[in-house]
Hints:
Blueprint lengths: L11 H10 L1 E2 L3 E8 L14 H11 L12 E12 L4 E13 L5 E15 L17 H17 L7 H16 L16 H8 L5 H20 L1 H22 L5 H17 L6 H10 L4 H9 L2
Helix pairs in contact: 3-4, 4-5, 6-7, 7-9, 8-10, 9-10
Amino acid sequence: MFKIRQTLVISCMYCALTFLSTLHAQEIQFQVNVDLNNIPFDSRIDIQNLKSDIINYLSTQKYADQDWEKPKVPVDIGITVTGKASNNTYSAILTVLSYTLLENGAKSVLMKSIEKNWSFEYAPGAALSYQNNRFNSLSSPIDYYMLTAMGLFLDTYGELEGTPYYEKAKLICRNGAAVNVNGYTMTPDPSVPSKIGLVTELTDMLFEDFRKLIFSYHFDGLEAIEKDKVSGKKVMANIITSMKTFKQKKVTMRSTLLDYFFNAKFMEIADIFKGYDDPDLFTILGILDPANNSIYQKAQDDR
Length: 303
């Protein structure tokens, strides 16, 4: 039987604070920052309204097919414009952070993504709209991350609840591949992390057990730590051990999903287990996430 987190009620103080700095789409509580400092002053005129246009777009956007009954998904979007290739074409770095919410109102990172070679077309006053049958170089990448963020968020509230949003994100990847957009391919290469690789694994039955462990990480692990740190850490250690078993039994090549998960979580995990007295746990973390093994070793030594 699937386990489901109850929808949390955020405190009035938390709501008041976030209202001052964020705007609310139908399902997303977002912040947008656009940095134009890397392009000449005279090149900024035609793109000076990019931030407000994206805010207006997301504020009126609805990604869910039904009414959204969960808390809004916290997402931070950063756009650093790095150049202007032609009248309406720009290069930029796109960063996206998405979170889930714990019962105490705290946020836990779910996704940290950066695109260093994003290219998009933008004209002042251009009308943006989400359409699942065509690719727009500006809005479609943003749509992809919003849909993926919603799916990851739902996967922390109920086992495998995010699947419909990963399917929508996958369609965006296919639309991009159909018009030969850089960074979008029809078939993922397991050795190279990619957008299509992430949502393909998130919709693959092979990875359902890992998605259930992601749910358990939040539902059983983080929430238990909030109630009792000593017993909660033991619960979390068991979940991490189960992740190692999953990787050893079912993952024969590099996994984009595992990379994404630990890229988002390694600092949180290191902080949870700082000074933990079981060395085997840190060995397991090194197997699961070798890229951040030095962080785990530092946490082990930090008492």
